[in-house]
Amino acid sequence: MNALDTALHLAASDIPPLPLRAGKVPFGNCPDCAHNACGGRPNMKTPGPCTCPRPCHAWAAATTDPTVLNSREWAPAWRAAAAVAYHPGGAGLTIVDCDNAEAIAWARATLPATRIVETTRGEHWIYQGVMRSVNGVRPGVDIKSLMAYARWLGPGIGAMAVLPDAVRTLAVKEPARAHRAPQRLSVPPRGGEGECRHRTPTYLDRGIAMAEQRITEARSAIHATVYRTFLAVLSTHGACGCLTDSHIARLFTAAQAKGESPRHCTDAWTNARTALGM
Fold first, then answer.
1. Pairing of strands 150-151, 134-138
2. Which of these, 32, 109, 119, 276, has the minimum number of CB atoms within 10 Å of its CB?
3. What is the full per-residue pLDDT of the chain (278 aa) written as tens digits?
4. What is the 3-state secondary structure (H, E, C) of the chain?
């Protein structure tokens, strides 16, 4: 099966492909971008300030539209393609890329079993679900999902599991420094209220889950949504000191899955606390 046929097969399965040239680098898939004339970054791994109607290279070029894949503009790339890649996030997937034997051993000891694809140096552990892509989450381990691409090396073996928290938390590279010590938010409970009602696990867990959902479902104004959500969580659950690092990490993970940086998460959390006088 040639590169284009492979791409069309993937697209029919709702997996958005793109062509790669030698060195696992994407093509510029239209005349304006063929030699990086659009101003994109030199290795074409990241969409640049392209003047085309839509980004035509890197992960942003991945598509399931057979008309685009079969277009005249893409034909030279498919003819010269050294490999086929795909956008995991666009397929609703996350890849834990284990690049050596030590990384594979860690995954086997730490992560739930899922579909595995062998690579030239290691293994891709593929989960159902999306999150922020991060390189170097631990030695020899990268996460590829949103705004990233991975080489297509076959469907792999094993049943695909749902993306676990053990993987999501790997993307939280910089926990909020403001609350690292003490382990709970240093805000005393309101006087005169007795046992804090927020300590009921169901009540608190429901609040955190709703906040995660609000961030995840945001389609625009992500910065503002994250800040407002942090503000709402703190106003409801922050005054009694019942929030733990694990709760906050869940919120940071949801925000980073939408493209927020660890630094922005920390700033938004700190600003929300300041706004509430905490």
1. unpaired
2. 109
3. 899 999 999 999 999 999 998 888 887 666 666 555 555 544 445 554 455 555 566 777 888 999 989 988 788 889 999 999 999 988 999 999 999 999 999 999 999 999 999 999 999 999 999 988 888 899 999 999 988 899 999 999 999 999 998 998 888 754 334 333 333 333 323 333 434 555 556 777 888 888 888 898 887 778 778 888 888 888 777 776 677 777 888 888 888 888 887 777 887 888 788 777 77
4. CCHHHHHHHHHHCCCCEEEEECCCEECCCCHHHCCCCCCCCCCCCCCCCCCCCCCCCHHHHCCCCHHHHCCCCCHHHHHHCCEEEECCHHHCEEEEEECCHHHHHHHHHHCCCCEEEECCCCEEEEEECCCECEEEEECCEEEEEEECCEECCCCCECCCEECCHHHHHHHCCCCCHHHCCCCECCCCCCCCCCCCHHHCHHHHHHHHHHHHHHHHCCCCCHHHHHHHHHHHHHHHHCCCCCCEHHHHHHHHHHHHHCCCCHHHHHHHHHHHHHHCCC
Place of tokens 């860690």: 106
